[in-house]
UniProtKB/TrEMBL annotation, chains A, B, C, D:
SMART domains: TGc. PANTHER family: BLL5557 PROTEIN (PTHR33490:SF12), BLR5614 PROTEIN-RELATED (PTHR33490). This is Transglutaminase-like superfamily protein. It comes from Roseimaritima multifibrata. Residues 161-221 form the Transglutaminase-like domain.
Length: 280, 280, 280, 280
């Protein structure tokens, strides 16, 4: 078990009456238990917390008048991810995939797996099924793409990234997700906090469905998956924007942190491929 | 109440061991009650029925060896759609949208609303909110696009269609869905059977979330919405393909039908805009 | 006749041996005669001037070692554009277009007219042929697009712009060029200096081939076409980049100017549609 | 010297007054000399031959009333391509490229080299410059893409093909051209007849500018480059469509042939990489 303290401080200058939707609160499940949590809005405004079922993403909705706005979130979380020997994790045969998991084979806005069937098959079609095939997809993504902040934007898709060969964490995740889906492996996007991410920021990574559960992967190798604290899960980044703005507001501040408080288990290295980690 | 008999007969030549996923069975809810239903597979193979929660799409999964395959589905359904005076149906304010409905504001694979914000605002931004604004989006879509079978394919998106100005039912739905989402109106894709569709085929249309529930719309004006029998619901056509094939099989036959058996209520004309219809 | 003084001052920090290609010198033809001209490179390096036939674009090629680099160009030009009564300028029938002009009906990198045939026909197909139809295309472009610096980049195409409904001068030109070509009217991109452009910068506009010659148009209405001094002509902006860099250099300075020195003819208003102007 | 007889027979049903532009006549230059040539139009209509300078593409323009139309073209050509030892063909340094050749570094409609700079550099950046680098680009294109008739259409671009990993001859050429340009090697599209092409059809291949002249390449390996008879040259397939139709006509027949009549020189194998061939 690891205890991790996460949080963020987000500031805006609001120019007209605006409704915000924040997706910054940590998910609560058996692998990720909240010890303490606080959300402060300055100046104070009434807010509403609502959850997207069945994924459990927690949204904070807030309508404010013009003026400055700051949102402070902090949480202490006990992580109890499930680990498995990667060599023993196989792929779930298509005939046995649960109906709700089948959805994660469908192409989505930023992960156009339907256009990449031959691409994926050419690259990964001869590999043995299993955890190692998703690892191969991550390695390929890591090796082929340059991590280049500023090289992509909010409407950039996996196919765009495969052309320009560069991107940031969300792009790496979209590429790997697309390739997994194209190979018949259900895959979905996860947004979260990440210990040891440098510079600190929100992080985007992904999960692939293998052997009857969802395993965490990160093609960027920027931080250890054991230090990921889940905020939200979705088909791709479109489903887990940390902030959605209806109105007119400009960001003035963004600080994000994630620190390991105490640890019984040492975090595995980023890029570790022998231990499979599951937290969903 | 209208009683509608629907069905389809789908044939394949299967060339290698193949798993099929059929999404052809009618949805069951309070507005759409199944009187009788049958699914026959020739030659007989064991199949599994599974449902995608929470939408209730019913999937039939079937693994078969090489050889011919025919699937026969027929159902008799009592439709009891809810009607409302369109002039009294307003938009649900963003602050009050249920969390699970917020998802249908997100862009999806074939409905890239994130790229069309200014486009939608230029066209529909000055209109009064409400049912009539979605009607305006449907009218615009109907007037701007040519219905041209063969002009689009399985990877065609709303933006593609807006460039080429032509498409089929799924494309009309994707364009209207994208424009609704860009205007802040949740919208989703519906696949179904449709009475009086000519030539008979599966149909694609959409729902917009207004005044606390989902209302049916069809920008093609090809058939009356009161005669739509829902098969499945999703973000866009990616979620409700009537047939998904893992393996090697070629289609040899496709027949689809939808006939009104008896009717207490006359079907409204396609393109009717005064009565709002809801069946979700 | 108008006398116009134009020029630019471009600075770079060169980080490795780099070859520059500058397309900043004014074109010389019967409508545009150079009274005086100078090009200074600081620190001095040998450069080569070469011209792209048959268009007459003049390129300056320069290879430099690491260090700062400044290029100063200034020219005084007598403009003697040909004017015509716009109402008397018709379209040249397709059967009579010169072979070399036919090339400007072909789609190009940033002007994908081949995708917009139906789009253009729907919008402009019922209009009478002639200068007024190109004017209608310019008006439509001006009305539909927002002029929004920073909203597009170097790989943005006309179709991208039609989706996002915003762009800068080169994007307005690409949209209008695409629509002209789709209507069967040869059109090409022109880069130049422009009197009264605010803020001063290089400008991009276009020419359409009507009645046997090329007429100037500018869908942005930012500056009078009579004050345009041609630098280069091409299929689209890909052909007339003011600076092309092979190596590693960062821009440090860009100043551009165009001032009317003396004038016998008053410049027509931007957006004037009664007098057709030709300078090619 | 090889003597090659080429020709085509193209039939249409013309539904309304239509103007055709045919680009089917062979180019005439020092490497390709026309021994005899005929063009028959049935029923007879006056036609005009015009040439695009400076490339020398020959266009036949023809306006016809409704009814059937057949065009018969045949030519006997003496091919006298220039050969060179591939190992001695280097790249022309950027500083020495002629101004008119620089144009072929620009991206074009179907060859978006501007989007593939990093892609090309990752793949080919460490290779030694010269003929062998273009060969490497051809080999990569051949190995990565599946030749799959029907998988692409008239608006398909190099980037589309790199995603879907399949195409036909024009797509192979567009990919290779894009990669060459992205590496700083001028490249252009060539349409022609091709001996030993099976099934017979018009063919699309490309030229790269090396060591001061244009060398022929074909990434499909479908036919020997020595048996290519040039019809036209352009930036990409947009410039050399064999038939352009303004009006309403449907193709009813297309036959194309290219036969070696007599030969002093044996045609080199497709995929030969030791002898460089130049015919421009």
């Amino acid at each position: 078990m690891n205890q991790i303290q996460v949080g963020c401080r987000i500031g805006y200058q609001v120019n007209s009456p605006t409704t915000f939707l924040f997706n910054i609160s940590v998910t609560q499940n058996e692998h990720q238990q909240t010890v303490s949590e606080s959300l402060e809005v300055e100046p104070f405004h009434q807010f509403e917390e609502c959850a997207v079922s069945p994924l459990g993403n927690r949204l904070v909705r807030l309508s404010v008048p013009p003026g400055p706005l700051t949102v402070n979130y902090r949480a202490t979380v006990n992580m109890n991810a499930q680990q498995a020997d990667a060599t023993e994790v196989g792929e779930t045969p298509y005939e046995q995939l649960p109906a709700d998991v089948l959805t994660y084979l469908n192409p989505s806005r930023y992960a156009e797996s339907d256009k990449l069937l031959r691409f994926a098959m050419d690259q990964f079609g001869t590999l043995l099924p299993g955890y190692s095939r998703v690892t191969a997809i991550c390695n390929w993504t890591f090796n082929e793409l340059a991590y280049l902040p500023g090289s992509t934007g909010p409407t950039t898709t996996a196919c765009d990234v495969l052309e320009q060969k560069s991107g940031v964490c969300r792009d790496f995740a979209h590429v790997a997700i697309s390739l997994c889906r194209a190979m018949g492996i259900p895959a979905r996007y996860v947004a979260g906090y990440a210990v040891n991410l440098n510079p600190p920021d929100f992080h985007g990574f992904f999960e692939a469905y293998l052997d009857g559960r969802w395993f965490l992967f990160d093609a960027t190798r920027l931080a250890p998956v054991g230090g990921f604290v889940r905020i939200g899960t979705g088909r791709d980044a479109a489903d887990v924007a940390f902030s959605t703005i209806r109105g007119d507001a400009e960001g003035t501040q963004l600080e994000v942190w994630a620190n390991e408080q105490e640890s019984n288990d040492q975090l595995l290295d980023p890029g570790n491929v022998s231990t499979a980690v599951s937290s969903a």
